[in-house]
Every structure is written in structure tokens, then in C-alpha cells.
UniProtKB/TrEMBL annotation:
It is found in: Cytoplasm. The gene is pelo. SUPFAM superfamilies: Dom34/Pelota N-terminal domain-like, L30e-like. It comes from Scophthalmus maximus. One of its GO terms (cellular component) is cytoplasm. Pfam families: Pelota_N. This is Protein pelota homolog. Residues 1-121 form the eRF1/Pelota-like N-terminal domain. Its cofactor is a divalent metal cation. SMART domains: eRF1_1.
Length: 187
């Protein structure tokens, strides 16, 4: 975690600006936060809009909110922090006093998802559904999704690499290190 700004007074009141660099940083944030604190963070908010014709639509927008923290939950398995509270600063998307939950979630690590169209035609329905949910999750959390045609050379190459890849917003634990460690025990 990177400390960007620190302004602490003698009575321990003040503010800090932190930038998470890996998933484990959420555990440190969990230990720093207390109920009643103010938390300012970038988040995704579902916003409903009404057109001039009266039709209602919804979209997800990225906005910065300041919450008065009411509940703090941490999932140690996923290194996921969940903070619920009321908005302290009104903006064009969220009124003051409105509730919101901020999740630095693992799916938020994905900035751009690269996926082969073969996975949407997979014979196993649960597998196909899993990738549809992944795509929806990335889009819901403000990420980009690029679907590659298996009829194009780039789609063929992606399919050879499992059919899915991602560009991340921040580094996460390398799963291959855990696999390497378990295989060396067998030798």
C-alpha cells in the first residue's frame, strides 16, 4: 500500500490518502477503518435516468463518494473489503444521506477482459454460464470486455492460451507460485 498523503493531529484525528497496490492491502485498510470514520473512494454506482419521452434506463457510472462508515466486513479468503455507509457529499449521481456499499473486490482488479467467443458456445452449460457471469461482473465493475472471434488468428491464439486473459488494474497473488510449491513437495 502506498501512502500518498498524511495529516494527523496531536489528538490522533486527521486524514490519510492510501493507494492499494495488491489485494492484501485491503486487510490493512480493514484494520485502519472504524465505524464513524469518513471513507472517500472511487466506486461504481447504478444510476437510473429518465429520457424526455419518459422511458427509464439505467447505467453504471464511476463516481467518487465520501461515506460515513457504518459497517465494515472483510472476507479473508478473497481479500475483499466491504464498507457500508451514508453519503456525506452530494454529487450529480448520489444524494447526501443515501446509502452505498463500497467493495479496492477481486473482480475490480480486472481492467480489460480478453475472452474467446468459443467459451460462450461451450458444450457444458455451467461452464458457459460461468464465463457469462464473469463478463457481466467485469462490465458491472467498470471494466472493458473484448470478445475475440475464434475464426480470426488472434482468437485462435487466445483459445490456445485457455480462451481467457485479463489486464489488471493492480497486481494480485500469482497462483503459479502456489502450484510450483506444491509440485516440489511431491519430488
Amino acid at each position: 500500500m502506498k501512502l500518498l498523503h498524511k495529516d494527523i493531529e496531536k489528538d490522533n484525528a486527521g486524514q490519510v490518502t492510501l493507494m492499494p497496490e495488491e489485494a492484501e492491502d485491503m486487510w490493512h485498510t480493514y484494520n485502519l477503518l472504524q465505524v464513524g470514520d469518513s471513507l472517500r473512494a472511487s466506486t461504481i454506482r447504478k444510476v437510473q435516468t429518465e429520457s424526455t419521452t419518459g422511458s427509464v434506463g439505467s447505467s453504471r457510472v464511476r463516481t467518487t463518494l465520501t461515506l460515513c462508515v457504518e459497517t465494515i466486513d472483510f472476507d479473508s479468503q478473497a481479500c475483499q473489503l466491504r464498507v457500508k455507509g451514508t453519503n456525506l457529499e452530494e454529487n450529480q449521481y448520489v444524494k447526501m444521506g443515501a446509502y452505498h456499499t463500497i467493495e479496492a473486490a477481486e473482480a475490480l482488479a480486472i481492467d480489460t477482459l480478453l475472452i474467446s467467443d468459443n467459451l460462450f458456445r461451450h458444450q457444458d452449460v455451467p461452464t458457459r454460464s460461468r464465463y457469462v457471469r464473469l463478463v457481466d461482473s467485469v462490465r458491472d465493475n467498470g471494466g472493458n470486455v473484448r470478445i475475440f472471434s475464434s475464426l480470426h488468428v488472434s482468437g485462435e491464439q487466445l483459445t490456445q492460451l485457455s480462451g481467457v486473459a485479463a489486464m489488471l488494474r493492480f497486481p494480485i497473488a500469482d497462483l503459479s507460485e502456489e502450484e510450483d510449491g506444491s509440485s516440489s513437495d511431491e519430488d
